[in-house]
Amino acid sequence: MKKPYPLFVLLLSMLALFSSTAYRLAETGYQVGDTASDIRLKNVNGQMVSLRDQKDAKGFIVTFTCNTCPYAKLYEDRLIQLHQKYASKGYPVIAINPNDVTASPDDSYADMQKRAKDKKFPFVYLHDETQEVAKRYGATRTPHVYVLTKSGQDLKVSYIGAIDDNSGDPAKVQKRYVEAAIDNLLSGKAVQQASTKAIGCTIKWRNNS
Amino acid sequence: MKYNAFMFFRRIFCTIVLLLGFLWAGNAMAQTNKVTMEKLPHLQKYLNSSSDTTYIINFWATWCKPCIEELPNFEAIQQQYQSKPVQVVLVSMDFAKDFEKKVIPFVSRHKLKSTVFLLDEPDQNAWIDTVDPSWSGAIPATLFVNNSRKQRLFLEKPITLAQLQEYLTSKFSQNP
Predict the structure, then answer these.
(1) Chain B interface, best mutation among A140, A202, A207, A209, by max B CB count within 10 A
(2) Inter-residue contact B94 to B59 (CB < 8 Å)
(3) CA–CA separation, A110 vs A118, rounded Å?
(4) Rounded to whole angstroms, what are the CA distances from B102 to A113, B27, B96?
(5) Which CATH class is domain B36-171?
(6) Cβ separation B95–A201 shorter than 8 A
(7) Whether A197 contacts A161, CB under 8 Å
(8) Which ipTM value was assigned to this complex?
(9) For helices A177-186 and A76-86, what crossing angle results, to 10°?
(10) CA atoms in the 13 A half-sphere facing the CB of A172
């Protein structure tokens, strides 16, 4: 009478676990605290870039951005500054363009190469051609930041959200969310404000209006 | 005699100029009155309204291509439901500094008839969740809300006229 019970419970909990993770991944992508999987995409210089390969990094400022969104463009210079400030401390910017080329022709790989050259991006600018990474991460808009931290072999999602609290005017920024999060991480503390929201452009998904 | 004729024509000329001036000013005033710049409490009046009105609150911007493409759908639905308790509210996410040179001209050029205002609240993280917790901040985004019937529907994606009609009839029991 008692024997099948633990097995049944185990099966049931496995099923529950499986369905809840599947649901969450499908619906919302990563949440703060989740383990992120590796990213492997082509950079504007033609080379494949993988997070795993960057042994010296402590983490990454993964930023979904693009050539075309005015909000994303407003943050280009601030992304450059973030990279200049934090790459040497172990947190380089990893810029990823997830927009579908058919839906947004000016986000083509060639246009990305041109933009990276014109703006002299000091960071990698990767093409998420299949939009697989954006979907896996749950990115919805540009710009959309995921700060990842290495924890042994794993990558932990430490922060999701906006770069700061004033897209329109860098001079009026009061809260630098990404900087604060990384400063917390660098000093071994928990991130105080681990998720924020901001207006941005919808990612231009394939087969979508 | 000659002098009087000159005076007469000058008077007529001045009157015409004055009249034209009034007309132009009236027109300009009508255009600028249409779209205003507001703070959060103005948006909250619609979000928290207890009247039996179904508000369709659309977040857009002049720089957002998919938003501009769907604006005619909101204009059309407002026309169809003109005599019904349905109100379209177009909330511009443009920056305050672009109000005069981008938003006002856009609204008058496209002759927008729905309620439209620019929400001047740069710290977006402070209020996005109050519109809907599921909103990530991407636009276009649209909230249907009728508090007196405790009904709401939030969509973070473009919307067609057929979808607008369907949501109003099926979820909010509002027929044109």
Answers:
(1) A202
(2) no
(3) 12
(4) 30, 18, 10
(5) alpha beta
(6) no
(7) yes
(8) 0.81
(9) 10
(10) 9
Whole-structure pTM value: 0.82
Classified by CATH at the fold level, domain A6-202 comes out as Glutaredoxin (3.40.30)
In chain A, what are the domain boundaries? 6-202
pLDDT digits (tens, 9 = 90+) for A34-80: 999 999 999 999 999 999 999 999 999 999 999 999 999 999 999 99
**Which of A36, A58, A50, A178 is CA-nearest to residue A126?**
A50
Q: How far apart are CA A94 and CA A86, in angstroms?
A: 12
SS3 at position A176: coil
Structure tokens at B175: 């027929």
Query: Of A160, A158, A165, which Cα lies nearest the Cα of A28?
Result: A160
> Could you list the pLDDT tens digit for every one of the 176 residues in chain B?
455 665 666 666 555 555 555 555 544 444 434 899 999 999 999 999 999 999 999 999 999 999 999 999 999 999 999 999 999 999 999 999 999 999 999 999 999 999 999 999 999 999 999 999 999 999 999 999 999 999 999 999 999 999 999 999 998 888 88
Q: Where are the domains of chain B?
A: 1-30, 36-171
Q: Residue B135: its chain A contacts at CB < 8 A?
A: 197
Count of A-B CB contacts under 8 Å: 73
CA distance A74 to A170: 9
Residues B76, B42: contact at Cβ < 8 Å?
A: no
**Contacts B93 to A, Cβ<8 Å:** 199
- Token readout for B145 is 């809300």
* Beta-carbon separation of B138 and A201 below 8 A: yes
Distance separating alpha carbons of residues B92 and B119, to the nearest angstrom: 6
Q: Distance between CA A74 and CA B63 in Å, rounded? A: 12
